[in-house]
Amino acid sequence: MRIKALTIRILRQIFRDKRTIALLIFAPILVLTLLHFVFNGSNYEPTIGLVDLPEAVSNSLNSSEAGHFQNYDHMKEAKSAIEQRTIDAYLYMDGSQPSLVLEGSDPTSNRAVMSLLQNAFNSPDKKSAKMDIDFLHGGSELEQFDYIGPILLGFFVFFFVFLIAGVSFLRERTTGTLERLLSTPLKKSEIVFGYVIGFGIFTILQTFLIAAYAIYVLGMYMEGAFSLVIIISLFTALTALTLGILLSSFANNELQMMQFIPIIIVPQIFFSGLFNLEAIPEWLSWIGPLTPLYYTADALTSVMVRGTGWGTIIENILLLTGFSLLFILLNILVLKKHRKI
Amino acid sequence: MVGDSDVVCVNHVSKRYGDQAVLKDIHFSIRKGEIFGLLGPSGAGKTTLVKQLAGLEVPTDGENVIFQQRMPSLQIMKRIGYMGQSDALYGELSAKENLEFFAAIYGLKRKERLQRIPEVLKIVNLAGTEKKLVSSFSGGMKRRLSLAISLLHEPELLILDEPTVGIDPVLRKSIWQTFDRLKSNGTTIIVTTHVMDEAEKCDRLGLLRDGKLIAIGTPTELMADTSSQSIEEAFLVYGGAVHEN
Ligand SMILES: Nc1ncnc2c1ncn2[C@@H]1O[C@H](COP(=O)(O)OP(=O)(O)O)[C@@H](O)[C@H]1O
Ligand SMILES: [Mg+2]
């Protein structure tokens, strides 16, 4: 009864603030759309200068469609072209050995040049070199976007629930409504549960819209069940909510709440798998398992890219629940500061 | 001094925050149906004391007994209406939504809510504004809505921390008329104030200074005792100032 009243009030407050609602729904949609176009845009086609190459070589290269070619008679011309950045690289004969000079300041163009040349020099016609490639998960159509998409989805849920719940609880404290609530026979656990249910309902709605947009409009890779994505988001929101409320006790105003973003939120991104986890040095790698987003990202990637079911994510869900229970306990302890019983 | 008809008994209560002694051995009681004023300058410890009575704080020493039970007690808190120094309202919600929320928190059934909400709005003169968002309310309107919320569950004991701050004299008068009406229905009211002329309207006064209860009695008693013309003068005498005449 009382929990229901709290839940209704929280939802009313969220939906009354049109600007925040717009931010919560459209900011993730905008970011995902931009990423979609950035990562799935057409591949970069490099321009390569060919300096006085044997006919056979330049012919075989010119037939490649992955780039553009410019023939030069002298090195000098090629050098000035590369300095003006009209070409990304040039190829010349060093004795009998072909040599490559790259402009070098842009990794994307470096990679494009190298892969083009590798393809051109290795196995142009040799059928024997071809092999069949199978993918255990994903597939050749899996793009960078499909891999980071699930992680970002989890991040958005975590970030927004953390911030909005934290700020609303902070306001509850600074405007005196928390004190008023505590002057009623309301139990402290009822306050926490009211918040959990209110934000839980909101998270289901938010995740539903964002995930549906990413999957059905942007065509994000989706192997598993949509319902599992919602469930994972819900537990992520629970963790974010309880952590947000907890940390709001240590902030005196909204700006101080924002200060938790670079300390609490951003570092989690580095350990969430958005960047290759193997690349993290050994002495830092213990941090990952301590961050909730690590488990969210793992579960979402499992479901969306690998198409796995309950079995593989249950452990992640349990760990997120563990975090939440810990934070709820700490919250009730912190609320003791405001009322002893 | 502590008897059966006493609704509130403050029993040798002290409170310290770290090194600072905020309340020092406060001892008094309040009878059923009286309007008791706690008068004292800012920082005297009024808020600290009424928060203890509302069950939000606990004393370092001594005890507060309300309706024969030691505070804090959730059972007793149901029978108390508390209005803090800040308005404690949700600005994004309308007046009615605020009232509905707190009514549900106090456990009022739907039928009771439908009946009580218009009643309390009428008491504080806010009828007709229930659809407006609280963020568009003036300071005085917020204060009155806050008061209305503390009346919702018809508490037997009403604890009001500076209820008339920021309210113009006309409205202040009408609020005090409300207190008198509630009192005649048997409600006990504790108000804190630092406005002296308001103090004269209380049945009894406790003068608080630097965490000490320096005097207690009806306004007439306090003035006669110090042969003063006003509560303000009396306060100064009890506070140790030399009487000018
Ligand atoms: N939570 C607290 N921690 C430390 N000091 C406090 C706390 N609450 C009140 N005080 C101090 O207690 C004194 C009395 O405060 P308060 O009861 O608010 O006075 P009043 O309501 O009469 O203006 C003040 O000096 C205040 O700084
Ligand atoms: Mg005060």
Automatic annotation (TrEMBL), chain A:
It is found in: Cell membrane. The chain crosses the membrane at residues 21-39, 147-170, 191-219, 225-248, 260-280, 313-335. InterPro entries: ABC-2_transporter_component (IPR051449), ABC2_TM (IPR013525), ABC2_TM_bact-type (IPR047817). PROSITE patterns: ABC_TM2. The keyword Hydrolase does not apply. GO terms for cellular component: plasma membrane. Pfam families: ABC2_membrane_3 (PF12698). It is a multi-pass membrane protein. The keyword Transmembrane applies. Keywords: Cell membrane, Membrane, Transmembrane, Transmembrane helix, Transport. It comes from the Bacteria. GO terms for molecular function: ABC-type transporter activity. Residues 98-338 form the ABC transmembrane type-2 domain. Belongs to the ABC-2 integral membrane protein family. PANTHER family: MEMBRANE COMPONENT OF ABC TRANSPORTER YHHJ-RELATED, TRANSPORT PERMEASE PROTEIN. This is ABC transporter permease.
